[in-house]
Amino acid sequence: KSMLQGAATRRASVLRHDARPLLASPLQPTRIVHCSAASSDPYTLLGIKPDADQNEINRAITKKKYENRGNDAMLRRINQAADQLMLSALNQRMKGGVSKSIAYADREPLFPWKPKRWDATPKIIMIVGAVQLVLVASAFQAPSTSKVIGSMLVGVVGNVMKQNAISPPPKDPEMATEEEEGRSGKNFIRGALLGLMATAVGILVFTLPEYILQWTKTSIPGLTPGLIVSFKVAGTALLNWIMTSFYY
Q: Which H helix or E strand runs over 75?
């Protein structure tokens, strides 16, 4: 009996000894581990959903670079996020069964110069809209084809400024890379082409009714040649405002 009592005492002592580390001391500080997974998540950094397609990803990358221009640390994080998403897309493509936007993520676009969706700041939208509205009002008071050219030039200048804001030319030409050296010229050419494109579409859309009337030999009372010119100015101003405000 004494041997059994001694064994039970030793067993209880061992259990108490093993249980001590499991009891939290009231004076023992608690260690808090911070997780940085959310901050390193490329989707969170770019502000997009995990199921975003390649076009949405590209727009988000361009937008974040534009918003953080001059912030080298943030730009490095954005580039790292872009690289991470590109590698993820290529890995998914190798596994098969992915969308076309992912399957051809690393291929050059068929039409690299086509307009891309990009919203300007509300201030720019209002300023450009006000200038174009003044030109339209002036055209209805004194119709002139020169105001079509004026509207086009406003669109070209606005688009070139927007291109330079999105892809800034190098501040120090001597330290610029090969791609940065030609950035100013590319921005000007693209801005001018967008302005010309908007002008051509605006004139075409607002000239189409005139051609229809001529083809059907129909006349509308009060539709004078001056009013037709005014409508062309309105079409040019509208399309250039849309291009400058919402595309690049």
A: helix 72-95
